[in-house]
Amino acid sequence: MLQVEEIPKNFILFADALIVIAGIFIERRKYQFGLRYYQLVREMFDCVYPRNHSRILLRRAEVYNNIGYVYAEINQFLLALKYCKISVDIDTKLRPSNHPSVATGMNNIP
After folding, report:
1. Higher pLDDT residue, 28 or 52?
2. In the chain, which end has fewer C-beta atoms inside a 10 angstrom radius, N or C?
3. What are the structural domains, with CATH classification, of the chain?
């Protein structure tokens, strides 16, 4: 688990950069590397913000969805289901049911 003594001012930008790097690995089918970066961002969010912090909830849902997608790509469907379900649960609480993010999350459920 990561330990954070002080939240950097550019924390969100740093997390976004890691998400982009993870996406690049996924596009190149380097799933384990991409998964490591997504998990790192998830851990960073857990260290810096409480799980239900409104500022980060939608980003957290995006990361969970991405993790679920990667697990589905590497045929670990139980883990994919777990993370996609978390993502959809967050999205359906914060967005209308016809929002594209909700549909994407449901579509990623294996």
Report:
1. 28
2. N
3. 11-107 (1.25.40.10)
